[in-house]
Request: fold
Amino acid sequence: MYRTHTCGQLKIEDVDKMVSLAGWVQRSRDLGGMTFIDLRDRYGITQLVFNMETDSALCEKARKLGREFVIRISGKVAERSNKNLKIPTGEIEIICNKFDILNASEVPPFTIEDETDGGDELRMKYRYLDLRRSVMKKNLELRHRMAQEVRNYLSKQNFLEIETPVLIKSTPEGARDFVVPSRMNPGQFYALPQSPQTFKQLLMVAGYDRYFQIVKCFRDEDLRADRQPEFTQIDCEMAFVEQDDILDTFEGLTKNMLSNIKGVEITEAFPRMSYSEALENYGNDKPDIRFEMTLHEISGLVKGKGFEVFDSAEYVGAICAESCSEYSRKQVDALTDFVKKPQIGAKGLVYVKCNPDGSYKSSVDKFFDQDALAGWASELGAKPGDLLLVLAGDKSRTLSALSELRLEMGRTLGLMDKTIFAPLWVVDFPLLEWDEDSRRFYAMHHPFTSPRPEDIELLDSDPGKVRANAYDLVINGVEIGGGSIRIHDKALQQKMFKTLGFAPEEAEAQFGFLMNAFRFGAPPHGGIAFGFDRLVSLFAGLDSIRDVIAFPKNNSGRDVMIDSPAKIEEELLKELRLRIEQAKA
Reply:
C-alpha cells in the first residue's frame, strides 16, 4: 500500500497515528536542524518534518528533494506548534521516519502554485503540470459536481440519458463542419456533430419523450475566450410540450444548480424579455441585468440643431453613468478611444456632465444650450453628478457600440459582481435573417425552429417579420443556453426549407431521413442546449472557458501540448484517397 491516507485527510484527532502518504513535493524549507516539506496530492497538502537530531541521514536525504519529486513517506502524526488554519491539515504535521523517491522531477517550467509565473501558452504546453495547481483542480471538481447535479435533476424529471452518433452526415447548421474521410467509402466523408439536433428530434419521433445528454459538439469557427472547436453541451429534448413547459423545466434545473453548488437561492421566476426589447434597452441579445444603465434613444431631442454628426445619423443613443461627472478629460478621452476601436466601430463620443450645481458641461456646448442638455438629462433620468455618454450613426452598429460602452462602464465602476447571478429568458427572436450578399434568408437558429403559431401565415407574405418560437437563457450577460419549439409537421418543414432557398431535391438529400420520420407520426416537441463549459466558467467566476476544460485548444485551434493538428503520413493519405494541394500564393 502506497498510502494509508491522502494529503488532505489527516486532522488533529489523528495525532499519534502511524501513517503513510504519497504525493508531489510542493516546496521545501531548511531551517537549521529541521527540514520542512509540503507534500501535495489531489486532496490537499500535508507538512512533513525531518529532524537532523533524531535522524541526520534521513534529513540530509530529504534536503536533496526538489520540487515535483514524487515520494512516499511513513511517520507519526503530531500536533503542529505553528498551526496554519487556512488549510484543512494545518493543525498537524508528520514526523517522518522513512521515505522513498518514487520518481525524480526536472525543474518545472513554471511554478506549480495558484499564482503561477507561467503564461497561457506555456501552461497549455505543459497542461499536465498546470492541472496540478489547486485552482485548476477546483475547477475540474466544480465541473464534476455540476455534471452530477445535471444528471441527478434530469433523471428525477424522467429524462433518459441517451448517446447519439459522433460520425454523422454533414448538414448546414451555421458553422463549418469538421469532416472525417471514410476509408471504407472512398471519396465520402463523415462530419462531427455541431449538435445532436436531428437525432434528438428522431428520439422524440421514436417516443422517448424526455432525452438528455452531456455531449461533445464540434464547430470549425473562429475562436475567442468563450469558444472552443470542441465543446460540451447539456443537450435536451421534450415531447408533448409548449414553450412554457421547457422554460419551467430548465429554469428549475438552473435554480437547483445555483442552490446546491453556489448556495444562491432564487425563488421568483426568471424575468422574460423580448429580443427587440433587449436590443433597444441593452444593445444586444444577451443583456447583463446585474446593473441598469440602459440605452435611451434621443434622436428626436437632438436632430435639426445644426450638429451634422447627429443630423445625419440614423440613430442617436445615450447611457447615464451615475456619479461620474467628475471624470477627467483623460478618462473621457480613454472612453472615446475605446468606442473607436475597430471591433466596436463608433466614430466618436459626445459627453454631458451633469454638474452638482445643476448646470451642464458638454463636448457640444456650441450646438446645444443648457435647456437642451437638461432635456437630455431628463430623458435619461440623470441626476446632478451623473455623466451622459452619447453615440450616433447607423442604428445597428450604434446599438452594438453603446452596448460595449455600457459593459465597459459596468466593469470600470465595479457593477459586475461575480457573486451575483442575474438570469433571464430572451424570447421572440426573429425566425430568419436576411443576407444582402447572397440575397436570401438564413435561419437565425436552425431550419427546424418553429415559427410562432400566429406568425406562420407571414412566411408567404413577409418572412422577415416572422418570430421564432425560440428562447435563450442568459446569466450575467452570458448566453448559457438556447433552444426552440421544433417544426413537427412535414408540410410546414417543407415551407421552411423553401423560404430558406433549398430546392426540394436539396432538402431531400440533406434532411430526407428526418422528413421521412415525420411521415410516421411526429409529436409536438422542443428542446434546449446549455453550453456546459460556459456554465461552469460562470459558476467558477472566470471569463474564459479554457480553465474549466482539462485539455483545451488555443485561439488558433491548436493543442500545443500534443502538437495537433498535424500532418499525416503519405501512405494514410493514399489509403483514404486524399491529396494535399499547396495553397496558391
The first strand starts at residue 18 and ends at 31.
